[in-house]
């Protein structure tokens, strides 16, 4: 697989587009594409020139999950080979979920199997009326195990039970109601809406965006106890004491736009 099957486009303002470029197989991925995506995301996390990431699929569909030849090889693998293969996919999902920069999924057409995992791991997912999602692994005797933590966190256990066991298609409107999609826009409006969201995100504090993701992850674990409360107290105190926090507050009080570039 050539690198051209994952196209990377970085704009001057810091928006990195990762475009799965296998439209002939509906952007289904195999082990090499999983590695391409993982490497690209790890590089984006370390690159200060990248402010946000948009994940896309070229053609009519976002991502059809596992490539047929990839799945054929899985059936021939030893147990240990399947463990190692599944770990690579699990790593991709965790890297995407934990990326310290905003992530947006541009979801047109079908998102199936692992493609649903990509959608659920992104901070924001925008679809169209013809978008649909499906956790169809059960239809071939599998279950969506490595993406399960992110799907269940997104939609909750009860809806997950139904979708994991039926493999049924989820319409765009239902996916939005479940929280898989952040919003559904009119046909032809996908790119303009994502551009609007990107502009909003890029106007905000770069480190603050990463901190926002961190605090959400922290408070979503366990009950609200004294330890969690103290953690939030120290968290905001550290932000207030940071150069970026001070710049944001000064800009607000001085009624000007903050200058994040030097902070």
Automatic annotation (TrEMBL):
It comes from the Bacteria. Keywords: Isomerase. GO terms for molecular function: isomerase activity. This is Enoyl-CoA hydratase/isomerase family protein. SUPFAM superfamilies: ClpP/crotonase. The keyword Isomerase applies. It comes from Spongiibacter nanhainus. One of its GO terms (biological process) is isoprenoid catabolic process. Belongs to the enoyl-CoA hydratase/isomerase family. Pfam families: ECH_1 (PF00378).
């Amino acid at each position: 697989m050539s690198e051209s099957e994952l196209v990377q486009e970085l704009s001057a303002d810091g928006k990195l587009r990762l475009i799965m470029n296998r439209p002939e197989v509906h952007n289904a991925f195999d082990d090499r594409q999983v590695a391409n995506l993982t490497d690209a995301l790890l590089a984006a996390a370390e690159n200060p020139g990248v402010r946000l990431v948009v994940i896309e699929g070229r053609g009519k569909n976002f991502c059809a999950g596992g490539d047929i030849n990839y799945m054929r090889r899985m059936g021939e693998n030893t147990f240990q080979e399947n463990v190692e293969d599944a770990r690579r996919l699990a790593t991709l999902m965790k890297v995407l979920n934990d990326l310290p920069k905003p992530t947006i999924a541009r979801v047109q057409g079908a998102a199936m199997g692992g493609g649903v995992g990509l959608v659920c791991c992104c901070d924001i997912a925008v679809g169209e009326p013809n978008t649909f999602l499906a956790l169809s692994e059960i239809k071939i005797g599998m279950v969506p195990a490595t993406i399960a933590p992110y799907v269940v966190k997104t939609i909750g256990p009860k809806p997950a039970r139904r979708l994991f066991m039926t493999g049924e298609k989820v319409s765009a409107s239902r996916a939005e109601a479940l929280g898989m999609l952040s919003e559904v826009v009119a046909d032809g409006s996908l790119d303009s809406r994502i551009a609007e969201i990107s502009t909003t995100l890029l106007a905000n504090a770069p480190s603050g965006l990463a901190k926002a993701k961190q605090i959400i992850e922290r408070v979503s674990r366990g009950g609200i106890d004294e330890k969690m409360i103290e953690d939030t107290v120290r968290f905001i105190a550290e932000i207030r004491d940071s150069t970026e926090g001070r710049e944001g507050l000064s800009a607000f009080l001085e009624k000007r736009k903050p200058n994040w570039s030097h902070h």
